[in-house]
């Protein structure tokens, strides 16, 4: 089937794989080995990758902490901040449509004594600055707002949020897993203190990611041990994964602007032609402030489960692969006010580097055929 689920994960780019391969075999050294060439070479490769990651988001390489992915980065950001500073201020503000890796971490912190405000987005998926401002309190320690939503692709007003948090001396974390590599992200421009990212969403391997920690931000480590990564994340470094993440970031940086254009044209065609060809369909989320390659469409008068099961020529999903019990309607769409039956019959199409025009044409025809058949 045609793969249109790039927001769930991406294939490893062959150039990324090539960069990684030697670090599994001949160059297998431990990056923490200080006494021989094997270790020195691995450490150099990690340093190079750290620069590549930093450059993509406008950070300095000292501010990059490698983790096992964005789930771990989010956990470290939120739990690490609360553990370091929660005795002074214990209020956290986040959004109801966050990924579970942030949402459930906030619930965990609530059980430990944090007070959490969950902002409800408008029906277009966006929160407003006024809404955030009204939620802030003298004891607000941390604001965590995702850069771009994995299910509907909407992009929150991150630069405005960053400016407000900096003014109020509140730590600002953003889960940028779906944004990094797709749109320009710059931690300095946006006044971001903590930022999570993951390699497997940008043509790197699964199981590796990073947390950007702005210089001067205090965190308590969540993994103790050999004090790797400036003591913030102990554990022998995943050198091949880190090299792959670095290469993926470098490639994303060079092709991003072109890809943004190419994919937004393909996405718009897919979206507009489905809306034209199939009556009673709606796009979920704001269509302006949105990732260039994501569209989430609801189909009225069809059974959601039958719909997803009938797509045999395309690989799509109804939202997050991480919570993909088909029976549960998406909590993101529910937060936008989409009724349960319509949320069930909603499909996320996410395009990527290997999507071609012919794929889009075939998808349009297939979707039209399937929906027409099910409605009959
Ligand atoms: N945050 C967002 C917004 C995501 O889309 C994902 C991946 N589904 C994650 C966090 C988790 O990332 P990882 O798979 O690297 O743990």
TrEMBL record:
Keyword Transferase: yes
Reactions this protein catalyses: (sulfur carrier)-H + L-cysteine = (sulfur carrier)-SH + L-alanine
Annotated Pfam families: Aminotran_5 (PF00266)
Keywords: 2Fe-2S, Iron, Iron-sulfur, Metal-binding, Pyridoxal phosphate, Transferase
InterPro entries: Aminotrans_V_dom, Aminotrans_V_PyrdxlP_BS, Cysteine_dSase, PyrdxlP-dep_Trfase, PyrdxlP-dep_Trfase_major, PyrdxlP-dep_Trfase_small
Enzyme class, broadest EC rank: transferase
The Aminotransferase class V domain, residue ranges: 2-361
EC numbers: 2.8.1.7
Cofactors (names): pyridoxal 5'-phosphate
Name listed for the protein in its UniProt record: cysteine desulfurase
